[in-house]
Amino acid sequence: MKPFHLLNAHCRRLKSFLMKQDSFPAFLSTSCQALSKKKKVNGYEDINQEKYASLVQTVTTSKYRHQTPDKIFEEDSFLYGKVVKTKSSQKTSEPKVPKKLFPLSNPNKVILSVEKTDPSIPLKISLPSRSQMTNGNVPSVTRILQQTMPMEQAFYLERWKQRMIMELGEEGFIEYTAALFSQGKLFHVELEELLLSQEDFSIKQEELSGYLASVQHVLGDIVGVKSLESAVCHSELGYLGLVDCVAKYRDKLCVIDWKTSEKPKPQLRDTFDNPLQVAAYIGAINHDNNYNFQVDYGLIVVAYKDGSPAHPHFMDPDLCLHYWNKWLLRLEEYIEKKEGKQ
């Protein structure tokens, strides 16, 4: 007989003997029982199994099912009850409108007859100096848009800047942005000479050949240039700007804004604040007596360095009015910020 079996037999005989002797301490009987296998008590037996049967089934089987959002919401609803949604004060947020709806066009503008003007010579008005401004320092369209840039747009711009600094370093980034600015300025000069040239045009800056090739198919639709690199001022709203070009594009008189880009911008929304800039120029021209015409259309032309066909983004009167109202909101925001600092 094995030692373990002998030990169990001995315990059984000892237990039988102790049960007959009432005078023995009771703890001896429990010590022998410790050697025998003790049955465990299940604490869940007292729980109402029927009440929570479906819950147990849900918990134990959920890991085998595909957890889609709908299934998760169903289980949450079963466990915690239905979600009670609070009623919002406004069902739909109304679009923000300017406090003062200033007209884009100017019905009171006096248009001089063609005989008193020379249509063959495009207007080119220089930006006024501070001493020439009656209202002091008049902000530019570019400055207003920069200082009222939406947070999301500012975030992506700052992220791009930090990424470029990581790649190029601080000095390299400064050189890169300066080169972009210089390149854009030279591109505008070349375009101006190209639009004014009556003879064969020769490219002076070889690094601009890609940009000029990019806009060739757009230039074929542009005639009747009325102004080039000309300053415009909205005296009533108090801002100024420098308009790239005013000419007819497919028989529609447009404010034309030339842009260069390293990335394709096939959609108007890809140009960010450029439509607001064009709308601001249109409104200023229509209320500036230096210009013997009014404009109802806009055109943003995005040229590419590799010579890829430029993307022309045409803005009809409805679209111009839409962005004009957005511009008025940004102008109001700029004025409020400026007054808050005073």
Automatic annotation (TrEMBL):
Metal-dependent single-stranded DNA (ssDNA) exonuclease involved in mitochondrial genome maintenance. Has preference for 5'-3' exonuclease activity. Necessary for maintenance of proper 7S DNA levels. Probably involved in mitochondrial DNA (mtDNA) repair. This is Mitochondrial genome maintenance exonuclease 1. GO terms for molecular function: single-stranded DNA exodeoxyribonuclease activity. Keywords: DNA damage, DNA repair, Exonuclease, Hydrolase, Mitochondrion, Nuclease. It is an enzyme of class 3 (hydrolase). It comes from Pelobates cultripes. Its EC number is 3.1.-.-. GO terms for cellular component: mitochondrion.
